[in-house]
Amino acid sequence: MNAPIIALDFPSMEEVSTFLSQFHNETLHVKVGMQLFYKEGPSIIEKLKEAGHWIFLDLKLHDIPNTVKEAMRSLSSLGVDMVNVHAAGGTNMMEAAIEGLELGLTGGRARPLCMAVTQLTSTSEKMLKEELLIHKEMELTVLHYAKLAKQSGLEGIVCSALEVPTMKQELKNVITVTPGIRLLGDRADDQTRIVTPAKAKQLGSDFIVVGRSITRSDNPLAAYERVVAEWQN
Ligand code: C5P
Questions:
Q1: What does the pLDDT look like over 198-228, one tens digit per residue?
Q2: Which of 109, 51, 103, 36 is nearest to 74 (CA)?
Q3: Ramachandran region, residue 133 (left: φ > 0; alpha: ψ -120 to 50; beta: rest)
Q4: What's phi and psi for 77, nearest 5 deg?
Q5: In the chain, where the domains are located
Q6: Distance (Å, rounded) from C-alpha 83 to C-alpha 175?
Q7: Of residues 47, 49, 60, 201, which has the active-site annotation?
Q8: 60 is catalytic
């Protein structure tokens, strides 16, 4: 069972260090997103790697194929464990992402896993139809993007845990990374397709991403332990 991935959505390394100091040198699965990476740059990755953490660099690339290829070449050289793109960039872009990741590898390291964001967990059915003008159901849209991602050589997708059973039924060997996780009683905030860690486990998620249920808690370590208990038992 993969450890829960903690979303380090903090403004700077200083806050990250204070947060991580509560975990008594435990090596964790962590996610670095745009907020932190754009502030601290690649040095944040070096520091987290030095401490032994497993890293998902969540920058959700979405651009023309050549730009994504070259960006992925740079990210691959940082030695992170997982990266992602938006499936909406299309198959040429996703194939270019894999090519870039392979080109950027140094020192015999394994290629980072590459995940495709299908539909953000903040996107509702209503928004899908009224703003994005996608008239298929959410689950069918997610499945279609997941198929394109697998065809393009990516290992898996980012989706809501609610969509995992269909993905597992329809696709072989798809890794599912599921944000939109909340402990019972926590606020949904900007997320719409949310579940508890226990429900994500029941639905068959491979990785859960948990941010504010842990980072905003009065006792982050206790919240993390609650997540682990639900997820791993
Ligand atoms: O605080 P919360 O648990 O909602 O954080 C979820 C994290 O997962 C955020 O860092 C967000 O950027 C990320 N994420 C997401 N939905 C996706 C992909 C990533 O919420 N589809």
A1: 999 999 999 999 999 999 999 999 999 999 9
A2: 103
A3: left
A4: -70, -10
A5: 5-232
A6: 13
A7: 60
A8: yes
